[in-house]
Specification:
single chain, alpha/beta, 8 helices, about 25% strand
Length: about 200
């Protein structure tokens, strides 16, 4: 199983290909993630770990498409990013994009929350690069967990964000576990012939 640690910084992981834009100790591949394509082959990785990285990038949809390209069909990808209501989303001046509960819905292949915004803009991301959203969660500090904010927010995530409860009881960050979905090439060829 081949694994990639994207934007590792000093969090170098054993058994992973460790990627960062700075040539730090333990970094295997030095590359600026805002430059495309990334220096990997198609379908190269079974698992990708991406912790507090995407918020620093210029083009999130393109970065997600690149994660799709370099991962195998069925590959698991773990993404941790700042939530838009978290003060930590804005303290770091290098942060360009915060995230919310539905941020990855546009590229979801599986049945998840369907809302008018997602239906309206899903064409921008095409039909090719898709992921199954396996799990997503708000990560809270101890106090918010003790008073039940975690339970409420995960039971009613849309209401939690829509009615600004996220600003009253902000999560520290968000985590997504997604799975790469790639169509079978034989099916693709068959579809093209029929059209």
């Amino acid at each position: 199983m081949k694994s990639l640690n994207v934007g590792c910084g000093t969090d170098v992981k054993k058994g992973f290909v460790n990627l960062d834009r700075i040539n730090l100790s333990g970094v295997d591949v030095v590359h600026d993630l805002n430059k495309f394509p990334w220096p990997f082959e198609d379908d190269e990785f079974d698992y990708i770990y991406c912790d507090q990285v995407l918020e620093h990038l210029e083009d999130i949809p393109r970065a997600l498409r690149e994660l799709w390209r370099i991962s195998k069909n069925g590959a698991k990808i773990h993404i941790a990013v700042p939530h838009y209501a978290s003060p930590g989303a804005w303290f770091d001046l290098t942060h360009k994009h915060p995230f919310g509960w539905m941020s990855l819905d546009y590229m979801a292949a599986n049945e998840i929350h369907r809302h008018s915004v997602g239906r309206m803009h899903s064409h921008e991301y095409g039909d090719k690069e898709k992921f199954n959203i396996l799990k997503r969660k708000f990560i809270f500090g101890r106090f918010h967990r003790l008073i039940g904010v975690g339970l409420f927010s995960h039971s009613f995530p849309i209401a939690y964000e829509m009615f600004n409860l996220a600003y009253m009881f902000p999560p520290r960050h968000m985590e997504f576990d997604i799975e790469t979905v790639k169509n079978d090439k034989k099916t693709d060829k068959k579809d093209k012939k029929e059209n």
